UniProtKB/TrEMBL annotation:
Ranges of residues in domain Tetrahydrofolate dehydrogenase/cyclohydrolase catalytic: 7-122
Swiss-Prot/TrEMBL catalytic activity: (6R)-5,10-methylene-5,6,7,8-tetrahydrofolate + NADP(+) = (6R)-5,10-methenyltetrahydrofolate + NADPH; (6R)-5,10-methenyltetrahydrofolate + H2O = (6R)-10-formyltetrahydrofolate + H(+)
Protein name: Bifunctional protein FolD
Domain called Tetrahydrofolate dehydrogenase/cyclohydrolase NAD(P)-binding: residue spans: 141-288
Summary of the function given for this chain in its UniProt record: Catalyzes the oxidation of 5,10-methylenetetrahydrofolate to 5,10-methenyltetrahydrofolate and then the hydrolysis of 5,10-methenyltetrahydrofolate to 10-formyltetrahydrofolate.
Domain of life of the organism encoding this protein: Bacteria
Entry's EC annotation: 1.5.1.5, 3.5.4.9
Keywords of this entry: Amino-acid biosynthesis, Histidine biosynthesis, Hydrolase, Methionine biosynthesis, Multifunctional enzyme, NADP, One-carbon metabolism, Oxidoreductase, Purine biosynthesis
NCBIfam families in the record: PRK10792.1 (NF008058), PRK14186.1 (NF010783), PRK14188.1 (NF010785)
SUPFAM superfamilies: Aminoacid dehydrogenase-like, N-terminal domain, NAD(P)-binding Rossmann-fold domains
Similarity comment: family membership: Belongs to the tetrahydrofolate dehydrogenase/cyclohydrolase family.
Subunit structure: Homodimer.
Pfam families assigned to the protein according to its UniProt record, in alphabetical order: THF_DHG_CYH (PF00763), THF_DHG_CYH_C (PF02882)
Phylogenetic placement of the source organism: Bacteria, Pseudomonadati, Pseudomonadota, Alphaproteobacteria, Sphingomonadales
Length: 298
């Protein structure tokens, strides 16, 4: 029996992008220019090229300015920093995103720390991580913020709920836990060294799976009625006769459907939210930089 609701991240993301598009003209009128997002792509990784192309398209569609910078995989660290410095100083650039991972040999952390925290639309700078942890206004990583939006849309007030975040990355797990804590959840962070992981997950009203292991969270790990956010995007090996393997999350979705109240699919769940929140963060950063009020209902 399957009763779970599929959380349509693609539709929610489309709605968010539409609200952003509607909010851009007010910014433009007051600031005298459109919000600008600079995306830096180093190297030729095909998956990264696809992501960057879709970010570019979405940025233009929202009425914002998109600046793309492509550098060769063997670029010197100093040259990359010189570009970041230029973007930091450029008044028409409100957001800077350096597509990750960077090719081997480059110091990723040093690059992220070189970004002006007020332009750090990925929310990866320690200053933004610290602001988030301290409950201050912060640019917040896109994937966890998008996940939180879906949770609040599904559940309303999250106060008092038991949340388990599986995965402790800087990009997703840690900021996700901070966001849930700020919504008054009781938060448990689980990871590869957690003992009795299935039993830990069984306690949760909210499960956020962000471990990067295909279908690791099984159906019988889930408390009846739990709401599940599946952050994983894993490409399975191609079956004979297929050119590409299937895309699956970190949760065994088909099994989970028999247990949970609602779950995000892969694809079409959290993934599309990531780009929509990137645009949201760009407009938020632009408004703050221009001394304008934070746009409402974004
Ligand atoms: N500095 C930085 N910031 C990022 O936010 C960042 C990054 N680097 N590097 C790569 C990852 C990956 N990422 C995704 C964005 C959208 C989808 C997305 O829209 N996925 C769709 C389609 C997936 C498909 O069909 O391939 C879905 O899940 O439905 C996925 C993955 C952002 N990333």
């Amino acid at each position: 029996m399957t009763t779970a609701r599929i959380i349509d991240g693609k539709a929610f993301a489309a709605g968010l992008r539409e609200r952003i598009r509607e909010a851009v003209p007010a910014f433009q009128k007051q600031a005298g220019r459109a919000p600008g997002l600079a995306v830096v792509l180093v190297g030729e990784d095909p998956a990264s090229q696809v992501y960057v192309a879709s970010k570019h398209k979405a940025t233009i569609a929202a009425g914002m300015e998109s600046f793309e910078h492509r550098l060769p995989a063997d670029v010197a660290q100093d040259d990359l920093h010189a570009l970041i410095d230029r973007l930091n100083a450029d008044e028409t650039v409100d957001g800077i995103l350096v597509q990750l991972p960077l090719p081997k040999g480059l110091d990723e952390k040093a690059v992220v720390m070189a970004i002006d925290p007020d332009k750090d639309v990925d929310g990866l700078h320690v200053i933004n991580a610290g602001r988030l942890a301290n409950g201050e206004e912060a640019l917040t990583p896109c994937t966890p913020l998008g996940s939180l939006m879906l949770l609040k849309d599904t559940l309303g007030d999250l106060t008092g709920l038991d949340a388990v975040v599986v995965g402790r990355s800087i990009l997703v797990g840690k900021p996700m836990a901070q966001l849930l804590l700020a919504e008054n959840c009781t938060v448990t962070m689980a990871h590869s060294r957690t003992r009795d992981l299935p039993d830990v997950v069984r306690r949760a009203d909210i499960v956020v799976a962000a471990v990067g292991r295909a279908e690791m969270v099984k159906g019988d790990w889930l408390k009846p009625g739990a709401v599940v956010i599946d952050v994983g995007i894993n490409r399975l090996e191609a079956a004979p006769g297929e050119s590409k393997g299937r895309l699956v999350g970190d949760v065994a979705t088909a099994e989970a459907m028999d247990h949970v109240r609602a779950i995000t699919p892969v694809p079409g769940g959290v993934g599309p939210m990531t780009i929509a929140v990137l645009l949201r963060n760009t407009l938020v950063a632009a408004s703050a930089r221009a001394g304008l009020e934070k746009p409402e209902n974004l």
